[in-house]
Specification:
Number of helices of chain A: 10
CATH superfamily of chain A: Divalent-metal-dependent TIM barrel enzymes
Strand content of chain A: 5-15%
Helix content of chain A: 40-55%
Structural class of chain A: alpha/beta
Shape of chain A: globular
Oligomer: homodimer
Radius of gyration of chain A: 18 Å
CATH class of chain A: Alpha Beta
Chain lengths: ~290, ~290
Amino acid sequence: MRDFSRDHRWLSINTATLRGAGTLDTIIEACVRHGIRAISPWRDQVHAIGLERTTELVRGLTLELSGYCRGGMFPALDPAGRRAALDDNRRAVDEAKQLEATCLVLVVGGLPGALGGTPQSKDLFAARADVRDGIAATLEYARSVGMPLAIEPLHPMYCADRACVNTLAQALDLCDELDRSAGGALGVVVDAYHVWWDPLLKSQIERAGDKRLLAFHICDWLVPTTDLLTDRGMMGDGVIDLPLMRSWMEDAGYRGFHEVEILSSNNWWRRDPDEVLTTCRVRHQTAC
Amino acid sequence: MRDFSRDHRWLSINTATLRGAGTLDTIIEACVRHGIRAISPWRDQVHAIGLERTTELVRGLTLELSGYCRGGMFPALDPAGRRAALDDNRRAVDEAKQLEATCLVLVVGGLPGALGGTPQSKDLFAARADVRDGIAATLEYARSVGMPLAIEPLHPMYCADRACVNTLAQALDLCDELDRSAGGALGVVVDAYHVWWDPLLKSQIERAGDKRLLAFHICDWLVPTTDLLTDRGMMGDGVIDLPLMRSWMEDAGYRGFHEVEILSSNNWWRRDPDEVLTTCRVRHQTAC
């Protein structure tokens, strides 16, 4: 395995980790102050300061983007809804391309209306069909501009409202169906938080191989976990065997970034961003 | 499918659904008042009023037990811990036998110490090995007294603290490994709440068949879900397509009870037990 004990060349910060720290320019400044070489920004944070301003900052500071968060959210009740989702994904591809991101992360969506709290369907098959069709259409465009798409299987507890793709096997089945050539245009995000429990994880990471493994997100599963969305832990504070998972990723050929994504409304989002980043750096070296 | 629209012959109440209603004798009286024919009691509730008293009540009222909750919790850090778990499971088998339960439900356990809030290991492989060995040892005894064991795969969000068996496929793999004859000594609980998200659910229910399908638990997945353990919904209030899942169960040969198990600290546990049971009966007829 790569030796991370003395540097953080492969550490990336997903900017959701610093949601408590202000706007994206402030977050980027903090990352640069800590010698961070790569980030993965969220679209809402980019839009808040503008795509042009973000592009200037990223280029001026020679930051890399380990990903761009996020496209997806394909399922809808009617053709107009599906069309709107495709249009939005096309814009997300363009933004990712302008920012020269490694990939556009796809959080594929769940049951229509559920994210807003009022699910309008119980039809998981329909939602999954919308996801397949939405990825297929988006892939056609993304391939034409050279932006890889990375399907992120989310933990099954998000099946209703955020993503009805919930295992790495399911995501890879989609990849194999929609991108037979497996040349890097379509792949997956392995986020430790979402997949650590999966008894098939090791074999599916092997199956994915380096062409499909487009990103690796890290944080930790806390015991107890008090909130389904925003009680994620700093690496080392939970029960995920991150070094073991990393060894599987590297055995499969992955050589990219370790992207720290911690949604933590009651802990890390409330702390000083310098403390958060210092801790990320230390834990990246000692707990991953 | 069986017509449940006019009777509740196959409705069973898991007594955890009435945790707010007092001791088990009170809960049983309430069930009988509503013409319920079957229950599935929890061991702590049985122990609180005594096994003999419970046996008297169940026999005197000719109640059936759709299951007995629960054995399992096998993983431990050392041989003494594993031995204690086996001893406890043997007692659970004896209690289930005395109560003439359909099966002993196994919630297999997660990482040692995690249920108490202080996980002492991150080794999921070791935990799963303890589970396999624990079921094997318990099965030998359970088979000798004629008590079927039913492995309940729990939702992956309980992997750390409650059960590291998290999919129906994983549970069935254990069944096939430990009980090749598939004569009914070892099978599974399909709990809608735990497995509804699984893209392989339909095929795995087919794979299980009637010999492995020992129990069917129902409730609903609420959107949003505000607590990982005790925010489960009444059938019809969430997003699970229960009639579809029931059709898969019956196509596979299942003809047993529909056991309502709703852990709901902020809603159903606070309501009058008669209202809870009336609602269970109505929803069993209209939403399942």
